[in-house]
Write a structure and sequence with these properties.
This protein has about 425 residues and is of the alpha/beta class. Helices cover about 35% and strands about 25% of the residues. The relative contact order is 0.10. Bound molecules: S-adenosylmethionine.
């Protein structure tokens, strides 16, 4: 078997051809993660460790140099070790990275690559089941500042261990690549895996993010913890969320108010959010199953705009999916000091710019193409439609998750009125 070299960022990875997992498309994901962890470290932790250690430590606050009070990072599913090696060489203020994988050959490859990249003092290769490793790391003195979960497909089975083995205020990074499930192709599978019913809608990518966030919050709540999303991204074939995890049983009681069900019309796709913890009347005398519930996935309420039935989806995370001031700091950092060889830098700046303008308090969005097709109108230029909404006194933004998206606080009847008069 011949060896192949892969260069990404400041890492050079050796792998036997066709042997261990390397996905070049995920470079965007790795680049972005480096920037997020660095910014998190600077904003939320740098003060702590610099305060304790003074000048000497500040000198060591460089990428590739071990920092005694720096971050302890767990990459629970590491494959070639590429991600961990880049974290070690590109993130300032790291103490230790555990690069873990279940597969023996993957861990052999991590060992070789760690030596090849001369980061032995920063990275500890480890062969274990990620779940077991995280459960064993639950005692407070063993917890991590940062945990990165980047599995194939669904991350659900790793979440319970992750929320327990992360420090208070720690940063959890989670990728989910099972987009078909999250975006509504198989609602039963999504309910089994994530505990939510997805809807087939133009807003399915943001809905996927909100299903994943709600799922993580649910796991955290079991241990008196809760999440605070810093950034949530839909890109290519996956979603990726960056959340802080805090301990706070009293705040957990507010978790209910951060979640909602969605009624979506089967005719015109108008959606209405129903926050959990409040009641919405279901039509009188609906046909019931033997468990006393309305039959099928539709509730017996009808859309006020076109009188078709509603589909019921959710629950989803309905609170903000980004922390706008963190996003602004991150964007400024990426523009100020683009990481060397950051091929995807422009794409990151583009995504973050759109995200920094997303309306934080408006979950989901409409797609202008879909709205026009419902009324059999020719496609209207997005800018004109946006300015009509602005003139009517409403706020409007794009969503980074969909081209031609309309995220607005205007009620649906206003959208339909504007389109009818077009
Ligand atoms: N994070 C890597 C990167 O950015 O290059 C890619 C990780 S790859 C998508 C998923 C890895 O998870 C595989 O190498 C697989 O061997 C490993 N894996 C699967 N189940 C695991 C488990 N229960 N514990 C630890 N590793 C596991």
């Amino acid at each position: 078997n011949s060896m192949q070299t892969i260069n990404e960022g400041s890492a050079e990875i050796l792998c036997k051809q066709g042997h261990v997992f390397y996905n070049p498309v995920q470079q965007f994901n790795r680049d972005l993660s480096i920037s997020v962890i660095s910014t998190y470290n600077r904003l939320f932790r740098a003060g702590e460790s610099k305060g304790e250690t003074g000048e000497g430590e500040r000198d060591a606050w460089k990428p590739g140099v071990k920092s005694e009070n720096g971050l302890r990072i767990l990459e629970a599913l590491s494959a070639t070790g590429l991600r961990s090696i880049r974290y070690a060489k590109e993130i300032p203020g790291v103490k230790e990275i555990i690069a873990n994988d279940l597969s023996k050959s993957a861990v052999e490859s991590i060992r070789e690559n760690v030596i090849h990249n001369k980061v032995e003092d920063l990275i500890v290769p480890n062969q274990a089941d990620a779940t077991t490793l995280m459960y064993l790391s639950a005692p407070p003195e063993k917890r991590f500042d940062v945990i990165d979960l980047d599995p194939y497909g669904c991350p659900n089975k790793f979440l319970d261990g992750a929320v327990q083995s992360i420090k208070d205020g720690g940063l959890l990074l989670v990728t989910a690549t099972d987009m078909a499930v999250l975006a509504g192709n198989t609602p039963e599978a999504c309910f089994v895996k994530y505990g939510s019913v997805p809807l087939k809608t133009k807003a399915c990518h943001e809905m996927a993010l909100r299903i994943l966030l709600r799922c993580i919050e649910g796991h955290a709540n079991r241990y008196g913890k809760y999440i605070e999303p810093l950034l949530s991204i839909s890109a290519d074939f996956y979603v990726r969320v960056f959340v802080r995890v805090f301990y706070g049983p009293i705040v957990c009681k507010r978790s209910l108010c951060k979640q909602a069900m969605i009624y979506q019309c089967t005719g015109c796709e108008t959606f209405t959010l129903q926050p959990l913890g409040t009641s919405k009347p279901v039509e009188k005398n609906p046909k019931l199953t033997k468990y006393g519930l309305p039959t099928g996935p539709t509730v017996n309420t009808h859309c006020m705009h076109c009188n078709h039935r509603h589909h019921l989806g959710g629950p989803i995370w309905s609170a903000p999916i980004h922390n706008q001031s963190f996003v602004n700091e991150l964007l400024a950092a990426v523009q100020r000091e683009p990481l060397t060889q950051l091929v995807t830098n422009r794409r990151i700046v583009g995504k973050l710019s759109v995200i920094s303008e997303e309306l934080p308090d408006v979950p989901l969005y409409y797609s202008l193409d879909k709205l026009c097709s419902v009324l059999r109108l020719e496609i209207i230029p997005v800018l004109k439609f946006r300015s009509a909404l602005l003139h009517a006194g409403y706020e409007v933004s794009y969503s980074h998750a969909c081209k031609n998206s309309i995220k607005t606080n205007a009620p649906p009847e206003v959208l339909w009125d504007i389109l009818r008069c077009w």
